[in-house]
């Protein structure tokens, strides 16, 4: 398994690297302290996952995320930052990140984000929900319990109905959901599924209606809260950005 860390603090990268190696002794870690260096590594190296800081000396991490998801859309990227406000989290999800780890979290959150991304899930710690950071459209997220993938939980309204499941989706809608969770934009999903863009847009509309949400961001958050995963990443060739695990 190969992971790229993009963060401008060498000491922080060293600490994260040490933690990851303790948890996964065979992991190979690549490091970059600048956005330009990180993007260069992401373009040429076989990787399973990228941990991306937002405050970089030569650009904003969201700019790097846009480039990576355009050039290598199948590569999972987890944002790791000191910022925890709702707008930052929502923007990360809008840009197809597969997770969000506040630097205030403990080591277990980092490991949970890694494990979640590798099985096709989106990691959002329960503390984000608990503070109400993602409650702008909470009426549409029908979950009786909010489970953070770090193992914590927060109580939601007990009167809400049980959440919808993937039951009732067509095979093509289920496949579309899998790629959505992986963070692929519509054009990349259409290429993966060998269909027209308009067909993918139709599938996405059906998914939003099925899960009673209005936007892709809400759907991704919903899947994170309810443990809906897409399955392990496809073992693409190194040129496609995914290294064998």
CATH homologous superfamily of the domain at 2-136, by name? Response regulator
Helix content: 40-55%
Distance between the termini: 4 Å
CATH topology (fold) name of the domain at 2-136: Rossmann fold
- Mean pLDDT across every amino acid position: 78
Pfam families: GerE (PF00196), Response_reg (PF00072)
InterPro entries: CheY-like_superfamily (IPR011006), EvgA-like (IPR051015), NreC/VraR/RcsB-like_REC (IPR058245), Sig_transdc_resp-reg_C-effctor (IPR016032), Sig_transdc_resp-reg_receiver (IPR001789), Tscrpt_reg_LuxR_C (IPR000792), WH-like_DNA-bd_sf (IPR036388)
Protein name: Transcriptional regulatory protein DegU
Organism: Paraburkholderia hiiakae
Question: Any overview of this molecule?
Answer:
Helix 7 crosses helix 9 and helix 8 packs across helix 9. A hairpin with a 5-residue loop joins strand 8 (145-147) and strand 9. It is globular, with a radius of gyration of 17 Å. The chain has helices at residues 10-23, 35-44, 61-71, 86-94, 107-118, 126-130, 171-181, 186-193, 197-210, 216-226; strands at residues 2-6, 28-32, 49-52, 55-56, 59-60, 77-81, 99-102, 145-147, 153-155. The strands form 3 sheets. It has a 5-stranded parallel beta sheet with strand order 2-1-3-6-7, with helices on both faces. Strands 4-5 form a two-stranded antiparallel ribbon. The chain has a two-stranded antiparallel ribbon with strand order 8-9. It is an alpha/beta fold and 245 residues long. The chain has a domain at 2-136: 3-Layer(aba) Sandwich (Rossmann fold), CATH 3.40.50.2300.
């Amino acid at each position: 398994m190969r992971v790229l860390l993009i963060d401008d603090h060498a000491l922080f990268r060293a600490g994260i690297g040490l933690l990851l190696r303790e948890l996964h002794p065979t992991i190979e870690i690549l490091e970059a302290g600048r956005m330009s260096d990180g993007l260069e590594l992401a373009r040429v190296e076989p990787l399973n996952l990228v941990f991306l800081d937002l405050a970089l000396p030569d650009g904003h991490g969201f700019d790097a995320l846009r480039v990576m998801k355009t050039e290598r859309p199948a590569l999972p990227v987890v944002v790791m930052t000191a910022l925890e406000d709702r707008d930052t989290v929502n923007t990360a999800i809008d840009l197809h990140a597969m997770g969000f780890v506040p630097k205030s979290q403990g080591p277990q959150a980092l490991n949970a984000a890694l494990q979640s991304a590798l099985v096709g899930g989106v990691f959002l710690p329960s503390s984000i929900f608990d503070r109400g950071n993602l409650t702008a459209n909470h009426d549409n997220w029908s979950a009786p319990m909010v489970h953070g993938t770090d193992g914590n939980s927060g109580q939601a309204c007990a009167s809400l109905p049980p959440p919808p499941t993937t039951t009732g989706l067509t095979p093509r809608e289920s496949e579309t959901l899998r790629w959505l969770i992986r963070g692929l934009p519509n054009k990349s999903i259409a290429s993966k599924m060998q269909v027209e863009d308009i067909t993918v847009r139709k599938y996405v509309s059906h998914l939003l209606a099925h899960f009673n949400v209005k936007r892709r961001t809400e759907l991704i958050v919903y899947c994170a809260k309810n443990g809906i995963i897409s399955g392990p990443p496809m073992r693409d060739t190194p040129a496609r950005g995914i290294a064998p695990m």
